[in-house]
Amino acid sequence: MTTTTTETVPVTGAVGTAHTRIEGRDKVTGAARYAAEVPLAGLAHGWLVGSTIARGRIRSLDPAPVLAMPGVLAVLHHGNAQALESDYASPMGKPDPALQLFQHDRVPYAGWPVALVVAETSEQAREAAEALVVEYDEEPHDVAFAAGRPEAYVPAGPAHSPSEAGKGDLAAGLAASAVVVDEEYTTPEEHHHPMEPHAATAYWAAGRLEIIDGNQGSIYVAQELARLFALDPSTVRVRSEHVGGGFGSKGARPPQVAAAMAATVLQRPVRVVLTRRQMFSLTGYRSPTIQRVRLGADPDGRLRAVDHEGLNQTSTVHEFVERSADVPRAMYETEALHSVSRVIRLDVPTPTWMRAPGEAPGSFALECALDELAARCGLDPIALRVRNEPEVGPLSGLPYSSRRLLECFEEGARRFGWAGRDPRPGVRREGRWLLGTGTAAASFPTLAGPSTAAVTAEADGDYTVRITAADIGTGARTALTLVAADELGVAPDRVRVRIGDSDFGQAMLAGGSAGTRSWAWAVTLAARSLREQLALGGSIPPEGITVRSDTAEALAALPRRERHAFGAQFAEVAVDVATGEVRVRRMLGIFAAGRIVNPLTARSQLVGGMIWGLSMALHEEAVRDERWGSHVGADLAGYHVAANADVPVVEADWVDDPDEQDPVGIKGIGEVGIVGAAAAIANAVWHATGVRHRHLPIRPDRVLTAGAGDLG
Ligand code: MOS
Q1: What is the share, in percent, of the chain residues with pLDDT greater than 90?
Q2: What is the pLDDT of residues 434-486, one digit of tens each?
Q3: Do 440 and 522 share a domain, yes or no?
Q4: CATH number assigned to the domain comprising residue 601
Q5: Distances in Å between the alpha carbon of 429 and those of 319, 434, 576?
Q6: In what order do the strands lie in the sheet with 463-466?
Q7: Final residue before a domain boundary, out of 556, 589, 616
Q8: Are residues 579 and 681 in the same domain?
Q9: Does 127 map to a domain?
Q10: Would you say the CB of residue 361 lies under 6 angstroms from ligand 1?
């Protein structure tokens, strides 16, 4: 018995309807293979050896004893490694020298890869790697991140967004202000630590270098490897079907390069997996920040002057700037504005993008400063933000594509129960707990990157979408299925979305909260023209009918706008005055973040960001021992992240905010959830205790040292 379906009425409405993850069953049953789990015949295992000093040279490295150990196949190091290309520009700028594995004897930071030991088993490789003796000529190192260091400089930044920018007369604005807030805020070094550690497998097949890894953009990794190894790009293929989290850390990293090098030497598949300890030095992190925020306002809270200065660290070998000072450029109306990010080079690993790079620490400083201003003006914190709502971008002068920040505050205040809040700090007690509530604004740019997609009408009536997207846990695969289904006018179960394969062509990476937006755009264009083609009639040949799209032109034609997702964060905390413990009791985030494709996974994204904000506010802090230049407690016991018991009721919802210039209406939700969350908690701690905490995390010892206002 067969069923013939002839679609007469197009099916739509998949977008906007909750849908469980397409690969959810595979993930929970273990059928989904992550990078380190894909079985391969003849697989060898590589183990990276990191430097134990923070600066100097390798004096000697003797592989002979290690090569005699059981199962050991090779030791790659600067004395025998193949030469790699370094003279190229990647789409992200100059290549990170950490990818130039084993090219010289210099060590620029602790944990720098100095060798790869390859063996038959992972255990043998690890045993041998730990036995490898490397001697160094150590030089004095400097890992002391601090304010006021004369070496700090202002990096140029991209032409469209210089590191230093502003308008108006800041000094005059501050001088004319009746109320001035001038405070320093700091955030510590923070790490992404996706649940799936970085891993890569490499092998040669039919003249092509095949890589299986976990990444945020297979085409980017493939192109980087092609450049490094001077290979024709068509001979490198990178696949990354399932990714256990990325958050900015999963680009081209030492594992892919090391695996490719060893696979080339041994002519057999080689897998390199990082330990969590290695991830502390080899996969990037968020730079610590020291930020000075100055706000000048009239007595009624109207801003006259905003100055945001951020200091970050980078390595001595590569420049990465955490642009925390950018946040006010698009947030509040003011006559004078100054924003500058400075950076200092230290003997530390290079930081990188980490969920809401810039915005996460920057919003902590700015949104806490606004709370301080509100208190000094005797204004409700939401009223202060209403008073300073801009008509156009404060720096750019451009209109907003849409800005529904105040609707977020309105809806959030209603649901959180903000009305009637007693503004006085330190007056609510419940047993040994002091209670308080706080709020903060969130924003994150709406971006898109050129992407191509192919959509095939199969002979059996189903559809296949191919796009080099990466689902790093966001639910992108599912979202694209819904987008394609609506555009094709069929039910989602008729659409198969294949992702994570560089052979599918150029596409945006999963970054900048722009993955799903960029890919959905490409899928929409391809599906639309396929549907038009099918409407002309005719039969579908056995190989199907495939239509390709490229969004480059459409993106180039977009008018210039201030494009952002927005949100309002609310938190209620209880502070134990005896132990200094801060417990978050509940959080609410209301967002205006474009059309929501899949409410189920969107909520997870936003809640996940907010929980990270909680973790940032109270727990996360990587501590570097200045004597050794490396971390103390480089594991998830020493690096404390919020656990279940720390996470209370966290609710996220949204107001309707479709982006009018996006074919699906998407803005992007990957990062806005963390923005402002830490500030809302810090502001709530002030409301509870009467003490401002300007240094994250708000640890019990800091709460105890600071006391608790008059009630402490
Ligand atoms: Mo995200 S930090 O843009 O990968």
Answers
A1: 96
A2: 999 999 999 999 999 999 999 999 999 999 999 999 999 999 999 999 999 99
A3: no
A4: 3.30.365.10
A5: 48, 5, 10
A6: 495-498, 463-466, 452-457, 545-550
A7: 556
A8: yes
A9: yes
A10: no
Decide if pLDDT at 314 tops 70.
yes
Check pocket membership of 354 for ligand 1, CB cut-off 6 A: yes
Print the domain residue range for 246. 37-357
- For ligand 1, say whether the CB of 251 is within 6 Å of any of its atoms: no
Contact 351 CB / ligand 1 (< 6 Å): no
How does pLDDT run across 609-630, given as a tens digit for each residue? Answer: 999 999 999 999 999 999 999 9
- Which of 289, 363, 366 lies closest to 322, judged by CA? 289
Task: Indicate whether 551 and 466 sit together in one domain.
Answer: yes
> How many domains are contained in the chain?
3
Which ligand 1 atom is at minimum distance from the Cα of 249?
4
For residues 232 and 182, membership in a common domain is answered with yes
Q: Tokens 């290695």 correspond to what residue?
A: 278
**Please, which pLDDT band fits residue 2 given cuts at 50, 70 and 90?**
very low
Mean pLDDT of 489-497: 97
Q: Residue 513 Cα, ligand 1 centroid: separation in angstroms?
A: 7
- In the DSSP assignment, the letter for residue 335 is S
Which one-letter amino acid corresponds to residue 462?
D
Question: Which DSSP letter does residue 230 get?
Answer: T
Residues 197 and 288 in one domain: yes
Distance 232 CA to ligand 1 centre (A): 28
Report if residue 385 sits inside a domain. no
Q: Among 521, 536, 556, which residue terminates a domain?
A: 556
Task: Indicate whether 379 belongs to any domain.
Answer: no
CA 81 to chain centre: 32
Is the per-residue pLDDT at 385 higher than 90? yes
Q: Is residue 365 part of a domain?
A: no
Q: Give one DSSP letter per residue of 67-114, joined into a string.
A: HTSTTEEEEEETTTPPP------BTTBSPPGGGSTTSSSEE-STT-EE
Residue 380, both tokens: 């409700």
The string of pLDDT tens digits covering residues 188-221 is 999 999 999 999 999 999 999 999 999 999 999 9
> Is the pLDDT score of 5 beyond 50?
no
Q: What pLDDT is attached to residue 1?
A: 36
Q: What percent of the chain has pLDDT over 70?
A: 98
Q: What is the mean pLDDT of residues 568-589?
A: 97
**Mean predicted lDDT score pLDDT of the chain:** 96
Asked if 123 and 49 sit in the same domain, the reply is: yes
Angle subtended by helix axes 677-689 and 359-377, to nearest 10: 30
Please give the DSSP secondary-structure letter assigned to residue 502: G
Check which CATH number belongs to the domain holding 304 and give it: 3.90.1170.50
Q: What is the CA radius of gyration of the chain?
A: 26
CA 297/CA 335 separation, integer angstroms: 10
Cross-strand pairs, 649: 586
Residue 296 pairs in a beta bridge with 180, 305
Residue 204 sits in the same domain as residue 307: yes
Q: What's the pLDDT at 708?
A: 58
Query: Per residue in 84-100, pLDDT tens?
Result: 999 998 777 788 999 99
**Contact 248 CB / ligand 1 (< 6 Å):** yes
Q: For a substitution probing ligand 1, which of 193, 247, 516 has the most ligand atoms within 8 Å of its CB?
A: 247
Please tell me if the CB atom of residue 511 comes closer than 6 angstroms to any atom of ligand 1.
yes
Q: Tell me the CA–centroid distance for residue 378 and ligand 1, in Å.
A: 38
Active site amino acids: 671
Residues 6+ apart with CB under 8 A from 664: 15, 483, 517, 520, 521, 524, 595, 597
The predicted structure's pLDDT at residue 575: 98
Q: For residues 431 and 460, state if they share a domain.
A: no
pTM score above 0.90: yes
* Closest C-alpha to 698, from 185, 241, 36: 185
Tell me how far the alpha carbon of residue 587 lies from the centroid of ligand 1, in angstroms: 23
Q: What is the pLDDT of residues 150-182, one digit of tens each?
A: 999 999 999 999 999 999 999 999 999 999 999
